[in-house]
Amino acid sequence: MNVAAWFKNTLIILLLALCAAGPTWALVDINSADEKLLRTVKGIGPVKARAILAYRAKNGSFRSAADVRRVKGFGSKTLDRIGHDLAIAGKPLVAPGAGPSNATASPGQRH
User: Fold this and answer.
1) Are 104 and 111 in contact (CB under 8 A)?
2) What pTM does this model have?
3) What is the pLDDT of residue 71?
4) Could you give the CA distance from residue 94 to residue 88 in angstroms, rounded to a whole number?
5) Which of 17, 74, 88, 103 has the smallest number of CB atoms closer than 10 Å to its CB?
6) What single string gives the DSSP state of each residue in the chain?
């Protein structure tokens, strides 16, 4: 096999692998996801997923990470760990690479 064919085959394999892994990189919108989609986030099992849905049913949409912290099982440590996989209006609850205070602070709050 010549170099060009090898490169082409390798590129195709890499692209297929990226496509297969793509959904694991996608943010899950906490305001629109159903239980099944919420459970795709590592760290959210059936109990936490149902707690999110119950909160939304009772209080409406989440507006900030502070709202998410009101859900049982979603303290600062949990949001620091999984907040980069959850989004509100397309924005992650915790910015990738951000420190722990990003998930816990609300506007005007100091640590």
Assistant:
1) yes
2) 0.66
3) 95
4) 10
5) 17
6) --HHHHHHHHHHHHHHHHHHHHHHHSPEETTT--HHHHTTSTT--HHHHHHHHHHHHHH-S--SHHHHTTSTT--HHHHHHHGGGEEETTEESS-TT--THHHH--TT---
- Separation CA 28–CA 58 (nearest Å): 20
Distance of alpha carbon 111 from alpha carbon 103, whole angstroms:
12
Residue pLDDT, tens place only, 20-41: 554 445 799 999 999 999 999 9
Q: List the chain domain ranges.
A: 27-104
The Cα–Cα gap between 92 and 24 comes to 14
Q: Reply yes or no on whether the pLDDT at 106 is more than 80.
A: no
Q: CA-CA distance, 52 to 56, in Å (whole number)?
A: 6
| Total number of residues shown for the chain | 111
CATH of domain 27-104: 1.10.150.280
